[in-house]
Amino acid sequence: MLPSLIPIFPLPNVVLFPSVFLPLHIFEPRYRQMLSDALQGDRIIGMVLVKQRQPRPAEPPDFYPVGCAGLISQAETLPDGRSNIILRGMQRFRVGWEEQGRVYRRAHIEPLAEIATDAICHDVRAARSKLEALLRGRLEMTGGEAMVPGDMNDADLINTLAQYLDLDPVEKQALLERDDIAQRSLALIELLEMRALTTQPLGGLGLQ
């Protein structure tokens, strides 16, 4: 269960998904402080995507209200004070309001449950088969080599593909905001089918 108040790390090109690992390099002083506080607390950081167009550059960047909290699974502090960390996606959330008083941003959030009924699991299994077929077909056309883990469960595979395929950040954000993993998988299929029609490269996970 997520705490009601978490630190927020807004980035312009990163979307975190549940159960997926994300390496990050922390160098700005405010985020060094955020990391220090998180490591002394519950080790949770909320990742949110910054919106592309900002009305006033002097103001704090606006971000999408749905993000994903990550647990710091590894942290390495470098001699100059910077850090390399790895987050593991925990749970999606919706931002309620921000709380002032720190050099970094914090927000009161509402956790968003990942619903997994029998029907949803069935749909995800079918979607996985279609995704694997789409990716195989794409690789046959380009001569690339697949690096998609075959032993990963259906939901984790969908989330991993959503995070690491070379999609636009806004497309990834739209996937994250889907109500359940079945809807996310169908939306991912639609995106990949569109890429196939336009012969755009997929990238990520060893896919070309």
Task: Explain this structure.
The chain has helices at residues 29-40, 118-142, 154-164, 169-176, 181-198, and strands at 5-11, 21-26, 44-49, 66-77, 83-99, 105-112. It is an alpha+beta fold and 208 residues long. The protein has two domains: 5-112, LON domain-like (Archaeosine Trna-guanine Transglycosylase, Chain: A, domain 4, Roll), CATH 2.30.130.40; 118-198, no CATH class. A five-stranded mixed barrel has the order 1-3-4-5-6. Strand 5 and strand 6 form a beta hairpin. It is globular and about 50 Å long. The chain starts with a strand and ends in a 10-residue tail after the last helix. 29% of the residues are buried.
How would the blueprint of this fold be written?
Elements: E1 5-11, E2 21-26, H1 29-40, E3 44-49, E4 66-77, E5 83-99, E6 105-112, H2 118-142, H3 154-164, H4 169-176, H5 181-198
Parallel strand pairs: 1-3
Antiparallel strand pairs: 1-6, 2-5, 3-4, 4-5, 5-6
Helix pairs in contact: 2-3, 2-5, 3-5
Keywords, please?
36% helix, alpha+beta, Archaeosine Trna-guanine Transglycosylase, Chain: A, domain 4, 208 residues, 2 domains, five-stranded mixed barrel
CATH architect. name of the largest domain: Roll
CATH class of the largest domain: Mainly Beta
Return the structural class: alpha+beta
| Helical stretch tally | 5
The rough form would be described as: globular
